[in-house]
Amino acid sequence: MKAFVFQGPGQTSWQDVPDPGIKDAADVIVRVDAVTICGTDLHIIKGDVPDVAPGTVLGHEAVGEVMETGGDVRTVRPGDRVLVSCIAACGRCRFCRENRYGQCRGGGGWVLGHLVDGTQAEYVRVPFADLSVHPLPSQVDNDDAVLLADIFPTAYEVGVVNGHVGPGDTLVVVGAGPIGLAVIATARLYTPGRIIAVDLAASRLTAARAVGADATVSADEEPERLVEDLTDGLGADVVVEAVGVPESFEMCTRMVRPGGRVANVGVHGKPAALHLEDLWIKDVTITTGLVDTHSTPLLLRMVAAGKLPASGLVTHRFELGQMEEAYDVFSRAADTGALKVVLGGPRHDAVDRPAEPLSAPRV
Ligand SMILES: NC(=O)c1ccc[n+]([C@@H]2O[C@H](COP(=O)([O-])OP(=O)(O)OC[C@H]3O[C@@H](n4cnc5c(N)ncnc54)[C@H](O)[C@@H]3O)[C@@H](O)[C@H]2O)c1
Ligand SMILES: [Zn+2]
Ligand SMILES: [Zn+2]
């Protein structure tokens, strides 16, 4: 088969590799029908994730059809259309039993496209299939589903749920990339009073408005002042960090009100200062997290009901064989306007979309 292989920092190729086969009785083999590229894949290619060995097939998000199942697989059969989650779960370790699949100690967690061959390929072997793939209802099309492999559960769990976004809250989302936009879209399910998006790129702020931000401000134009003005000087109830650089994390901790919450989603490569000399007296809660994907079934039901137009973030489509072109477009997002790129064959044709207009605006 063909697959997108990491060959070492700065080196990748779309090339022939052996077809994957069942290695463990809990495995399935999935034919990849839709796949996307994550910012994390770009980090891997830069050499920021040294655990990824040269020769690894990248990708941790996909939709496809089950071709083969190991003898212990109970929840899916050949022919089923499934979502392949970015997180696999052994289901037996302490963390899996607490729904913290991201922390799995039994061989799961983030393994696809990291520690084992991933989804940017014609076929993928998925370990621990019973808890790592989700059968897809016919109402959910491939473009919506593939965004539920990583970015929507990440945004929802690590941003909205950890931040305890509630009715009437003032929510500030710093960083309006795919993750920040998905935070805005899923936060709206809780009816916050006001959502303010902060980014450096005008195109991202426009996208933030389209998914439901009430106000947008450039990170260069004193966003702290705006938040202060809009909250009578108090600060925001919830601030979500969706960038991953020290400046933005530190800004989040300055924008939060006493007793408020800062939910960090960004992946940080450098230390960020924690100003306890200012924060100790403010009763603030700061959370961190790796996605667990425990919310994927809930998000799938929301998509099936027409309440979460996830695929509004898809800006570009490619055939699977155009992987290198898709990477080029995705990695030059500032020039190309790319949010999410989806690669794959024809869209799922059994889709029965609700006739009612979707409740949230599309990007
Ligand atoms: N915790 C997790 O489990 C998890 C999972 C997936 C991704 N992530 C992380 O979430 C973060 C966001 O992901 P993404 O795919 O949306 O990334 P992205 O790079 O597409 O988006 C980041 C956005 O931040 C903006 N930005 C850059 N510097 C800024 C600043 N100083 N202030 C305000 N905005 C600024 C950029 O213009 C961009 O729009 C990344 O760090 C990613 O690695 C975390
Ligand atoms: Zn990812
Ligand atoms: Zn486990």
Automatic annotation (TrEMBL):
Residues 8-343 form the Enoyl reductase (ER) domain. The keyword Ribosomal protein does not apply. The keyword Transcription does not apply. InterPro entries: ADH-like_C (IPR013149), ADH-like_N (IPR013154), ADH_Zn_CS (IPR002328), ER (IPR020843), GroES-like_sf (IPR011032), NAD(P)-bd_dom_sf (IPR036291). It comes from the Bacteria. Transmembrane segments: none annotated. Keywords: Metal-binding, Oxidoreductase, Zinc. Its cofactor is Zn(2+). Belongs to the zinc-containing alcohol dehydrogenase family. This is Zinc-dependent alcohol dehydrogenase family protein. It comes from Streptomyces formicae.
